[in-house]
Each structure stands twice: as structure tokens, then as C-alpha cells.
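Handout, page 2. Input:
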Amino acid sequence: MPNATTWRLRTRALPLGARTLIMGVVNVTPDSFSDGGLFLDPEAAVARCMQCLDEGADLLDLGAESTRPGSRAGDANATVSAEEEQARLLPVVEGILKARPHAVLSVDTYKAATARAALAAGAEILNDVSGFTWDPAMAEVCAQLGAGVVLAHTRGRPEEWARQAKLEPDTLLASVREGLTAHMRAARAAGVAEDAIVIDPGYGFGKRLDENYALLRRQGELLALGRPLLVGVSRKSFLGHTLAPLFGGKAALVNAREAASLAAMTAAILNGASIVRVHAVRPAVEAARIADAILARP
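Output:
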């Protein structure tokens, strides 16, 4: 089990290490790979967030722009402007906090303007899949407003992922380690507190299919970087491709990846994850309870 520590957020702190925390994902988008379009309406999104909290989510992660493979997220021609992203996102943040004032909200964005608006609206955490590299102003915003931050490792931008060269396990792990180290160094230089930082290996973000398993197997080595790990493997495409022999040779569709998601999530917990990012909350709560019980035994 990871060492006990505290994650400093904007207005509070979360204890990490005693048990795995469950982060429920709700995408306020028309095109996210897992639930795109289901929660684009603010009322539907808020209702889904209430359900996640009732099922045991410790915190929520809200995204209003898809970073699915092939998307234009992160480049100068991104199809979702900061204004549109905020128009989707802010009513949901406000609706959740009106219903549950003590809910812990994370916002999944790489845009500094959206981060500033979301934190001002009551979000506690900024989850940047680019690790502060796609918008140079992001680190300063998070430092100024005292946000908790999740810094993820990503190789290239989503439109480039399918063309990435395959890496051997040692090279892959070194790339992830070096990238996360650079992200943390930049965050600290901008004034982000050390205990505000959580790191994410970035499963599926610029990793080829089998590379994700090599990374998952050796994920615990990243604890040497000194910060807690947040892991998101829920419904990722590498799981669907592994299941292909069970589905007539075709990759399992998103809605058929839940058992595989729980298996990968459990492996992530046993390999050092303090927080797991999931779409189906209640099964994840139950699986995490079992993984934590294993880790608690001498």
C-alpha cells in the first residue's frame, strides 16, 4: 500500500494511503470515448454526479472536451474553445456544489482560462492530461489559486498517438519517469506546492496497446518519484483489444469492458495507485475494498 500522505487541495486536504480513493468520471461532452453525449445536458450531468457520490465516489472528475485518440485537443486548431468548454462545465460545477456543498470536484482541462473559471466556481483540483505543457499559463493559475493538481504523462497529442513508435519496456518506463519529473519540476518552479501534486502515468495517452501492460506491471517503480499515483484505466481501448478473441476477433466495445476495467484497476492498486479514476463507481468501490484488504495484510 502507498505511504500515507496528504493531498493539499484549494480549500482542504485529502488523506491518501489509508485506502484507495475512487474518482468518478463524468464527461460533459458529445464525443468522449466512453460516455460522450450521455451527460451533455447539465441536469443529466448533475444527476449522474449525484449517483456517483451516492455509490461511494470520494471525488468527481469533470471533463468538457474529449481527449480521445485522434482528437484535436491540445493543438492550435482544437475544436472546443475555452468559452465553449466553460459553457458546458460551469453549470455542472455550480449544480453539484449547490446540491452537495462538500463534494470534492476535479476539472479535466489543459486550458488555463477554464481552470481559473472552474476553480473560482468551487472546483478543488485541476487534472491536466498534458502535465502543464499544452498551455504554459496553467501552472501559474494553479499556483495562484492553490489548486490540487494531477500531472499526467502524455506522448504527443491525440492526433499523433496512432503513429507513435513502439517502445521497449525499459525505454517506456524511462520516458514516463522523465516526463513526470519534468512536469513536477515545472509545477514547483511556478509555485505549486509539493504536497498539492499527484502524478498520473497516462494509460492510453500516447502508449501503444501492449505498452500499457508493461507500464502497469512496473507502475510501482514510479513511486520513487515521491508523489502519490492517480491511475485511469477504465474502459481504455487496450483492454478492448486484449478481449478481442472473446468477441469474434474484434475489439470489445466500450460497454463490454467493465470486468476488464476492474481487473486492470485492481492491478493498479496492487502496484501503488492511491486514487483510481473510474466510470462505474459502485463496482470499483467494491473491487478497491478487496485490493486494499490484500495490501493491509502482512
